[in-house]
Design goal:
The complex is a heterodimer of chains A (about 650) and B (about 300). Chain A contains 30 helices and ten strands. By secondary structure, chain A is an alpha/beta fold. Chain A has a domain at about 1-260: P-loop containing nucleotide triphosphate hydrolases (Rossmann fold, 3-Layer(aba) Sandwich). A seven-stranded mixed β-sheet of chain A has the order 2-3-4-1-5-6-8, with helices on both faces. A two-stranded antiparallel ribbon of chain A has the order 7-9. In chain A, helix 3 links the parallel strand 5 (about 80-85) and strand 6. In chain A, helix 5 crosses helix 11, helix 18 packs parallel to helix 29 and helix 20 crosses helix 27. Chain A is elongated and about 85 Å long. By secondary structure, chain B is of the alpha+beta class. A six-stranded antiparallel β-sheet of chain B has the order 3-8-4-5-6-7. Chain B has a six-stranded antiparallel β-sheet with strand order 9-14-10-11-12-13. In chain B, strands 1-2 form a two-stranded antiparallel ribbon. Chain B is elongated, with a radius of gyration of 24 Å. Chain B has three domains: about 1-140, Winged helix-like DNA-binding domain superfamily/Winged helix DNA-binding domain (Arc Repressor Mutant, subunit A, Orthogonal Bundle), CATH 1.10.10.10; about 145-220, Ferrous iron transport protein A (FeoA) (SH3 type barrels), CATH 2.30.30.90; about 230-300, SH3 type barrels. The chains are: A alpha/beta (about 650), B alpha+beta (about 300). At the A-B interface, helix 3, helix 10, helix 11, helix 12 and helix 16 of A face helix 7, helix 9 and strand 13 of B.
């Protein structure tokens, strides 16, 4: 069976209660939308659930709604359970109305009965049941109430013991007349994969997917007639939606009694501050600061001790344990496996804190407010308010920025966020910048680092703007967003979301990131013994002519390439290739011997804008579900970084600065 | 005696002369839905019969004989339309096609009897003047609704497209000759025109507005029934949605969130710039300013 419902109706909470830890989280095939499935056993019956993406209607306005609709129509689940918010029945019944029109076996979960009660609303489930003609189950999902009754109802429907098909709600005469006419224009035996009458209504609503299917199925002339009719009635959607709301209003009035006068909710007062143009921004920055603080003060120490214990410690223990074993094997395990994927794993605590914070803010209902206040600023660079938080977190590490972009609802804004996130100057890159700046510029180091950050942010803004203007144009729904009611966080939902995201990251580290780390390790250790004689060293030498344009020797090119595994590697590699670290040579002084200041600035700039680390790339691949977009990210970053590097060095050389 | 095809050409040229338009080859091809070469060929035949005067590349003009024939055809057509509507209970949507068939089978005698019988009528149901026996006259001056300067009051004079499908759409919009409507402006995005009729607000699509000929009339207007963008509401003021427009996705999303015409919205947050928040059907919805300008409301009493 499938679980449908609008966002913020407690659908996930119901799903979590039903399926517990049996959940499987993946993506819808080829889509960037999360697909959750799970099972639940009771007696001899095993229920298989699919959690459909939150949707307000069945018109394909967003990817989420299209996926939900296609699943219901094409996969034909035995039962569709639709979760509605009892305290906001009027708006939630719209989706129910559409599902009834579609004619699928339906069970309505009347959730948030406690909140409705608190607001002085009495919703009568029996009255709703008789008004709709399908089973209605009252529930308080946060407390698990109604969940077993839901299973009863679903079981009864699935085994044909209860009626779950009701006639579609009546529509207006005007809509009926339009549908009749359209019906007459389309051959009665036309084969389309949607219920005919429903498809006709969707055509009138201007649904592009249905129009596309119809265009393919009809002759050119036939479609031209239909198309001109639809153009003539291009405002039919208003009439159709109006008729639905008329039914919705009547139904909800019949089943709801208001016992008390409406009160000004606490949330309304909170909103006066949280959505205020100034107060809201301040409040938001406070929240961001708190998240950052938690990440650094709680996460970093844990990360560091993990690093000591897991990466360095186990590498040492390994070397001890494997004494006598071939050097290659030791190197593979300690540098390849532990130094690559192991290092990435030490970030798990930081990510866990971040994901927990995101899930908590989302569940509280604050995220929509944050998006609202930041939209003003993000809008200018073609992004949405919700993109701000994940991007900002990129200052710490790009991986959470990319994984965190899930909170951005619009598909194109989400992709843009993911693609520009690697341009956020992450902490690891700042380490490298700090080292170079200190070695070359002494007192001006802070200024140099600061300008590098500025360059990165400027490139980010520019890329975001270009992407939204040229690549994703015309896909926007515009900024229309529901501000959900504030409510106390449901820990089950929050922890479940955190757990799922952390687990996804661990899986990523254990598979894709490990594989790439091993490949880079192999490239840097074969055929010779040291990195100078390796494939990587050879590539570095091969690329030297390009490096020359930026004033860089092959050693630095190699360092740049090893930074692919982790940005900090730049320093370690330089230590190896420049022969430092043996006590007598200092990396800082050695660096000033091999390159001029102009080249150093060029190198820092390239480093800042270069292809992100393997963990980020794996995250991009996972989130975009596309090699094409991952390749695009790599391509544009290589191009931009080299261009900027060459420009900096050449301009400096021409002007005679720092050479 | 000439054939039906020729009669259709004469009628089309006659109608263009009535409107004061130039009957060019391409205009005729468009109006009769035929190819340009077939128009040229037919014009040569009509020219040979002395019914039209036609120079290469120039507009066609009816000769005196042609005028008489065209006028008579148009007269019969409009008389039949008027007759069918008034005495046989046809709707104005159905009569054009009936009259097209009847006009060719009408003798001069029948035409005169009909004209005498319908003496008191001077237009057809679509608002076109019924020619007098003396011949075609220039039609009453009017402009398409799509070109009418807004805001203002306009009286519908006549409808150019007489196909059943088109007229059914007008019936639905409650637009017919003689009606007075308040125009509220053309929307640049798709050329549609917003009009108010008996206090109700409609949006007339661009291709419909082009076919409605109107004249300016003087009426007094009250500011209260004019629709304003929802951005004009101050916090705690309320309005009833009269229209929303914009991209498909935007309209559908608004509707799904409860913003359907006829719904009351209350402004929650509007700082004069940037996004705003409205309360609709018990939920709060945040709208970008650009988006909110496409949501039109009629104010209700200040709260």
């Amino acid at each position: 069976m499938a679980l449908a419902g609008s966002p913020n109706t407690g659908k996930s909470t119901v799903f979590n209660f039903l399926t517990g830890l049996s959940q499987h989280v993946g993506n819808w095939p080829g889509k960037t939308v999360e697909r959750k499935t799970g099972t639940c056993q009771r007696g001899d019956t095993v229920f298989f659930f699919v959690d459909l993406p939150g949707s307000y209607s069945l018109t394909a306005n967003s990817l989420e709604e299209q996926i939900a609709r296609d699943y219901i129509i094409q996969d034909q689940p035995d039962v569709v359970a639709v979760v509605v918010d009892a305290s906001s029945l009027e708006r939630n019944l719209y989706l129910v109305c559409e599902l009834l029109e579609l004619g699928v076996p339906l069970v309505v979960v009347l959730n948030m009965m406690d909140i409705a009660d608190g607001q002085g609303l009495r919703v009568d489930p029996r009255a709703l049941e008789s008004a709709l003609g399908v089973p209605v189950v009252p529930a308080v999902a946060t407390r698990g109430e109604g969940v077993s009754e839901l299973l009863d109802a679903v079981e009864a429907v699935a085994f044909g013991r209860a009626r779950a098909l009701a006639p579609p709600p009546p529509t207006s005469a005007a809509v009926r007349a339009l549908v009749e006419t359209l019906d007459g224009m389309i051959p009665p035996d036309l084969a389309i994969s949607y219920p005919r009458r429903w498809a006709l209504v969707k055509l009138l609503e201007g649904d592009r997917a249905i129009a596309g299917a119809m265009k393919k199925a009809l002759s050119t002339n036939g479609w031209r007639g239909v198309d001109s009719f639809l153009r003539l009635h291009d405002d039919a959607i208003l009439e159709i939606a109006g008729a639905r709301y008329e039914w919705v209003a009547q139904t909800s009035q019949r089943v709801t009694r208001r016992l008390e006068k409406e009160r000004v909710a606490l949330g309304e007062r909170a909103d006066r501050i949280l959505t205020h143009p100034v107060g809201g921004v301040l409040a938001f920055l406070g929240v961001v600061a708190a998240v950052f603080w938690a990440m650094f003060s709680l996460g970093i120490p844990v990360q560091e001790s993990l690093d000591d214990w897991l990466v360095k410690g186990s590498a040492e223990r390994l070397e001890g344990a494997l004494q006598g074993a071939p050097d290659r094997l030791v190197s593979l395990l300690s540098d390849g496996v532990i130094g690559g994927a192991g290092l990435v794993l030490t970030f798990v605590p930081i990510l866990a804190i971040l994901f927990l914070a995101l899930a908590l803010l989302e569940d509280l209902g604050y995220m929509a407010r944050a998006a609202f206040v930041m939209d003003r600023f993000m809008h200018r660079i073609g992004l949405r308010g919700k993109s701000f938080l994940p991007l900002f977190l990129g200052f710490g590490c790009n991986v959470p920025a990319i994984l965190g972009s899930r909170i951005v609802e619009s598909q194109s804004a989400r992709l843009t966020t993911i693609l520009v996130a690697p341009l956020m100057p992450c902490a690891a890159r700042m380490v490298v910048v700090a080292l170079f700046a200190a070695a070359f510029f002494g007192g001006a180091a802070a200024l140099v680092s600061w300008s590098m950050v500025t360059v990165n942010l400027a490139v980010l803004a520019l890329m975001a703007l270009l992407l939204s203007r040229f690549v994703f144009r015309g896909e926007e729904t515009g900024f229309v967003m529901e501000l959900p009611r504030y409510h106390a966080p449901n820990w089950r939902t929050v922890l479940m979301a955190t757990w799922q995201r952390v687990r996804a990251f661990v899986v990523l580290a254990g598979t894709a990131i490990l594989a790439v780390s091993l490949v880079v390790w192999a490239l840097s250790s074969f055929p010779g013994d040291s990195i100078q004689d390796s494939v990587l060293g050879m590539i570095g030498r091969g690329l030297e002519p390009a490096g020359r344009l930026m004033g860089l020797d092959w050693e630095l090119i190699v360092a740049l390439m090893t930074s692919f595994v982790a940005k900090e590697n730049t320093i370690a590699t330089l230590g190896v290739v420049l022969g430092t670290g043996k006590g007598d040579v200092n990396l800082n002084t050695e660096l000033t011997h091999v390159m001029v200041p102009a080249a150093a600035v060029a190198f820092i700039a390239v480093q800042m804008l270069f292809v992100p680390c393997v963990a980020s790339l794996a995250a991009i691949r996972r989130e975009t579900q596309s090699w094409r977009w991952t390749g695009f990210a790599v391509g544009y970053m290589v191009t931009i970084s080299f261009t900027v590097g060459i420009i900096i060095y050449q301009v400096a050389r021409l002007m005679g600065w720092g050479v | 005696m000439i054939d039906e095809r020729s009669e259709q050409y004469l009628k089309a040229i006659g109608q263009m002369e009535e409107e004061g338009e130039q009957a060019t080859t391409s205009a005729l091809a468009r109006s009769l839905n035929v190819s340009m070469p077939s128009v040229t060929e037919m014009l040569q035949r009509l020219s040979a019969k002395g019914l039209v005067r036609h120079r290469r590349r120039g507009p066609v003009r009816l000769s005196e004989d042609g005028q008489r024939l065209a006028s008579s055809l148009i007269r019969r057509h409009r008389l039949w339309e008027a007759f069918l509507v008034r005495f046989l209970g046809f709707s104005w949507e159905e009569v054009h096609e009936e009259a097209c068939r009847l006009e060719h089978a009408t003798s001069p005698g029948l035409e005169e009897r009909l004209a005498g019988f319908l003496r008191d009528l001077d237009t057809c149901p679509h608002g076109h003047a019924i020619p007098v026996a003396a011949g075609l006259r220039r039609a009453e001056p009017a402009v398409p609704l799509s070109k009418f300067p807004a805001p203002g009051s306009a009286r519908v004079v006549r409808i150019q497209d007489e196909t059943a499908q088109f007229l059914r759409r007008l019936t639905q919009l409650d637009i017919s000759p003689g009606r007075v409507l308040q125009t509220e402006g053309v929307r640049s995005a798709d050329g549609s025109v917003r009009v108010r009729l008996d206090g109700r607000s409609h949006r007339v699509p661009a291709n419909v507005a082009e076919q409605i000929m109107v004249q300016a009339v003087q009426t007094k207007e009250t500011a209260a029934d004019r629709a304003v963008a929802v951005t004009e509401l101050r916090p705690d003021q309320a309005g009833i949605i009269v229209d929303l427009s914009g991209g498909r996705n935007f309209v559908a999303r608004c509707l799904a969130l409860g913003c359907s015409p006829g719904t009351e919205v209350k402004m929650v947050h509007n700082s004069g710039h940037g996004s705003l928040i409205v309360s609709v059907r018990g939920a709060r919805v945040a709208l970008g300013r650009g988006e909110a300008e496409r949501l039109l409301v009629k104010r209700v009493g200040d709260a």
